[in-house]
Amino acid sequence: MQFNSYIFILVFFPLTIVSYYLANRISTEAGKILLIAAGIVFYGWADWSILAVLLISLALNYLFIFFLSGRVRWKKLFLFLPVAINVGLLLYFKYLNFFIWNIDVLFGKTYGFYNIVLPLGISFFTFQQIACLVSVSRGELPRLSLIDYLAFILYFPKLLMGPLMEPADFINQINDPALKKLNWDHIACGLKIFSFGLFKKMLLADTFSKAVEWGYSSISRTTSMDWILIMLFYTFEIYFDFSGYSDMATGTSLMLNITLPINFDSPYKALSNRDFWKRWHISLTKFLTKYIYIPLGGNRKGKLFTYLNTMIVFLVSGMWHGAYWTFILWGFLHGLLSIFDRIAEKWQARVFRPIRWFFCFISVNILWLLFRSFSVIQWASLLRKALQVQSLSVSSALLKYFYLPEFQFLTDCIPALGVLSSRFPWIWMGLFLLAAFFICLIPENNYRRLHQNSTLTLFPAIIAFVWSVLCLSGETVFVYFNF
Amino acid sequence: MSRKSWSLCWLVVSSMSVLLSALLIFRTDPFFHYRAPLTDIYYYRLEDERGQNDGISRHYEYDAVITGSSITRNFKVSEADSLFDADFIKIPYSGAAFDEIYAALEHAFRYNPEIRLVIRSLDENMTFLPGERDGSFPYLYDNNRWNDVFYLLNRTVFFRWSMPMLFQLCDSEFSPGIMSLDDYSTYEHPSGLNSVSLNGVTQLPAGVPIHLSPEDAEIVRNNLQEHVISLAVEHPNVDFYCFFPPYSILFWQEKVENGTIYEQFEMNTLAAEMLLRYDNIHLCSFGSRMDIITDVNNYSDSFHYERWVNSLILKWILSGDYELSPASFQQKLAEERDFYINFDYNSLRNQEDYECDLFAAARVNQELTGAEPILLNESVFSNDRSVLLPVLTGQRFLCFTAKQEDANSTAAVRLQDESGHSITVHDLDPESFADQEWHSIVLEIPDMSSYTSVCFDQLNNSGWYIRDIILY
User: Fold this and answer.
1) Measuring CA to CA, how many Å separate B80 from each of B89, B311, B361, B469?
2) A-chain residues within 8 Å CB-CB of B9?
3) What is the rounded CA–CA span in Å between residue A55 and residue B471?
4) Distance between CA atoms of B440 and B401, rounded to whole angstroms?
5) Across the interface, which of B3, B14, B151 has its CB nearest the CB of A188?
6) Contact B284, B50 (CB under 8 A)
7) Which of B1, B4, B5, B6 would you mutate first to test chain A, the one with the most A CBs within 10 A?
8) Which residues in A lie closer than 8 A to residue B28 (C-beta atoms)?
9) What is the structure's pLDDT at A66?
């Protein structure tokens, strides 16, 4: 099930929220069981068979958590084993065919791929389970009951695409008696951020996505200018898609009185690569920092190890996103940029801020294209095409994706607008880009303004919600769903 | 504003807005999902095949169906009604494979047991397997009322259909109704060699023959059995008129050059063999009409013929002249195949691309209506002139040639009836004649017989010259 679906908005969530508060009147445990049931339904809605891997993973991990909670010898072994199993499962589902493909290429043989169906959200729930295991072993969660554990892992607002959350943070909130009653402040703020998140996904991300899809399916017919724009479109697509999801997750969770951690903090305002990674997918960055970077020594073992640890984290991040060389290269290049940032930190601070912003934004743009491309070779050729700048012409087929049914209706009603639209067919694309840049660069992040609610936000939230609901029939998937 | 008020206000206004949007779509129902069109209240456009076809077959009154791929889009329902003495609907599915056409007909029979006649194309894609279709509205085709939410809360339906229908009511000149099925889903594109074959025609050597593989033959058999024959068996009292579309000579050239012409005709032969076993299936092949097929002026691309060919197809189907029989289909199809294999494609290079595409329509009008061409005026004139029209027996095209030697003045062609009432049918724009050469004009005037004279106005001292006025 997805947030941007009729079943979630019209049926599942209204039923869940009402049932949750009613269940909490019975007992806290009843409320948690309700959330667990909701999580199971949310996860298995499209296909109940996919629950199998998740449930087996849950059972296995809790068994080790049970042992880790007690007084056991060889605690490190009881920690290492399940972490290895989790990582092993992740490697199997995500990377086995990639590994086989590379062996085929290296040795010129054909071993044949396995028909592996990637469980939804495996990257996220695996990392959450690892976080649980480590927290229990460190004593941060002295007594983690089965119900609390299941409620944490199966918590549907973050189950499929995060944000990754500290187990202790969630457990404290879910057991806080003060958070068991309906809170109108949370409801209002949750509705607001959910509405804006849905708008980001349905109107912005999905529109940019169609234009990007056209580009990739019609490469031979595209121009240089098309690819400069498509790079920009994908940059916005992936941001609005993922941050839209995060906003919806935050809003949904807030209405259940659970505050999720911030995941995006206006990343396109970043002035450097390191700044960017403090703002983009913050929960993943924190997780990798806590569970990989710091255990490896972080920046405590001299500059060389700092750079090495940084590179390892980025390579892991790249691989986490997908089993293709494009993601690995993406991680590697971000790692290089991050290392460069560290080295050049002092003199960068002296550079004019808009220039710093520009170079950061351009580098992120270029690397996102790698993210979207089928192969490194394709990425390189598209980049070459964009940089050749043979002409400034933009394909009309690209422009038409921005001429939404809503705009067609407006141009039919307002003849002058129709004339303007036919004389300047790029006007709607321009409007989208303007809106995208404005949202990304000017106002404060939705999460930071979470509790700012007033009459001024009411009607924009209503318009955003209603308009987005009308767009749901398009049935689109989130980009990060694949991870 | 308190948070509670904010939340309740959001809930109430959002819910009401969503509900109202759904109600508007439900009420206007532009895809006729719930009811027949309310033609006394709204004006309905017919523009979306996959959105509206099911609604048309569900709520229109009819006893005959025209369906098939995009090459059936240009059929005129009124012509079919008149020729077959039936009430037709037209439900074309551009790009459809056999399974989609089958599903459409199967639904139509379920909605309307009165159907007695089906005309459908048997396209060359007989080996296409069922698959996903772009731009479709699957939720309109099933009995699941729950997924109607995709229709009732749909931005495209809301903004492109329902809202314009509502706003039209405010127009003082608004008149309710519905677009004619004749105009539904039609296309008109430039035809002729210069439009269809941009790089000209070059005959390449015939390719290595490719024959229908056993696997593909099995797919074709299954496709035909499940998606064509099954309907005929289920409805033995319904006449099914199937036809192999008369694709253009350029389509066949490509088939010859890549060797697949053998495969195609083996498919067609297999289809004929299977279909002709049934008395209520009539299969036509128009391959012997090489005068049409080899004239690229009848086509807008290698597949799609212009609307006058659709009119001819209806006439041909009714006449039975091109209907295949169990005894002769193999020979006829073999003759067609051999014609294409042996045809001199280089001869197409010199084929005239009519300046006015409608001239190709004019040329076939005699076959359609029986009306012979009439030469009204052969000589050149440059003054205002009124030419009396003879008694017309089906002529619908006014053709003449014009030249202009003065860049500034316009002229007009007008038709006048016996009471003196006249209409301007064409303005001669000097910009189109700036080269001061003779140019052909063809005007289609369906009701030409209600007029008594054709007048050429504003010619005096204007530099306009007219000649060769012919009625087709």
Assistant:
1) 9, 8, 18, 31
2) 458
3) 81
4) 4
5) B3
6) no
7) B6
8) none
9) 86
Q: Flag if A188 and B4 touch (Cβ within 8 Å).
A: yes
* A405/B4 Cβ within 8 A: no
First-to-last alpha carbon distance for chain A, in angstroms, is 16
Does B155 contact A470 at a Cβ distance shorter than 8 Å?
yes
Amino acid identity of residue B311, one-letter, is S
Determine phi and psi for B377, rounding to 5 degrees: -160, 125
Residue carrying structure tokens 């806290």: A28
Q: How many residues does chain A have?
A: 483
pLDDT band of residue A102 (cuts 50, 70, 90) is: confident
Nearest to A305 by CA among A313, A319, A334: A313
pTM of the model: 0.88
Enter the ipTM.
Answer: 0.90
| Residue A72: alpha-carbon gap to chain centroid | 37
B305-352 pLDDT per residue, tens:
999 999 999 999 999 999 999 999 999 999 999 999 999 999 998 899
- The answer to whether residue A458 neighbours chain B at the CB level (below 8 Å) is yes
What CA–CA distance (Å, rounded) separates A54 from A57?
Answer: 5
User: How many residues does this entry show for chain B?
Assistant: 472
B386 in contact with A, Cβ within 8 Å:
no
The answer to whether the CB of B360 falls within 8 A of the CB of B193 is no
In which region does residue A80 sit, left (phi positive, over 0), alpha (psi from -120 to 50) or beta (all else)? Answer: alpha
- What tokens appear for B398 in the block? 């006014």
Inform me whether the pLDDT recorded for B466 exceeds 80: yes
> What residues of A act catalytically?
321
Residues 347-406 of A with CB under 8 A from B: 404-406
Helix, strand, or coil (residue A183): coil
Convert the pLDDT of each residue in A39-58 to its tens digit: 999 999 988 888 888 888 89
